[in-house]
């Protein structure tokens, strides 16, 4: 067994509890005492999810934000986080950035664990939330005839990463300090048929939503919002790069979103391919996957 897809497939055979949703969703959804808890866990690795030598205050912010983005895709209200932390040579900036993120998003730190390792620094965070609407949005509810929407542009994080890699300090915000769409997620939850956040690239995540919904999604490449500073020749890079943390969602025909969003496609009856870009299935790499 090798690769992320094979490992997740093996785990799915073990995830028999209905709260796990077959490991095919952004979060676990646990019914408990009349409330619905939303749970998610994300990890970050130095050299993979952040640059070696990057300001650890930004890394701490991003670790919190990416987990809260999963909660946003369920329309959840954050309750708190648990931190898993590999100690480094100096952890001051991480603590400072963590405090900034927790204060900004008004989320308490509830506990966690620390370790020391001779290898690459690895971080993990578990975020807990409470559903604000039932049924809880999933990836699997899109139906033929639904419209496909996104809450903001894709590609800004890519440009931020490139600026940071080149030694710039300006125009790096989207990569270093993303802001999860928590308010938008709660507003959209009563309306959507399916919803998820964009973390691994618009094309890859749209395909995941289509597969979960047993449908085909046709995206209009000319309707996908991109940063104004992005050269048109780099549109393909932007829709496959990831780290944007916008919400991708579907709405019933005739329904309009209650927050700023762009309509980028349509849900079709499942055909030969789960994803169409224009009139054809996209070729090549669709997004980021751990090999």
Characterization of this structure:
The protein is built from 8 helices and 11 strands. The chain has 291 residues and is an alpha+beta fold. The protein folds into 2 domains: 128 residues, PurM-like, N-terminal domain (60s Ribosomal Protein L30, Chain: A), CATH 3.30.1330.10; 131 residues, Phosphoribosyl-aminoimidazole Synthetase, Chain A, domain 2 (Alpha-Beta Complex), CATH 3.90.650. Helix 3 links the parallel strand 3 and strand 4. Helix 2 runs parallel beside helix 3 and helix 2 packs parallel to helix 6. The protein is globular. The model has no long low-confidence stretch (mean pLDDT 94).
Please supply descriptive tags for the structure shown above.
globular, single chain, 291 residues, alpha+beta, 11 strands, five-stranded mixed beta sheet, Phosphoribosyl-aminoimidazole Synthetase, Chain A, domain 2
Instruction: Characterize the overall form.
Output: globular
How many domains make up the 3D coordinates? 2
CATH fold-type name of the largest domain: Phosphoribosyl-aminoimidazole Synthetase, Chain A, domain 2
- CATH homologous superfamily assignment of the largest domain: PurM-like C-terminal domain
CA radius of gyration: 19 Å
What structural class is derived from the secondary structure elements? alpha+beta
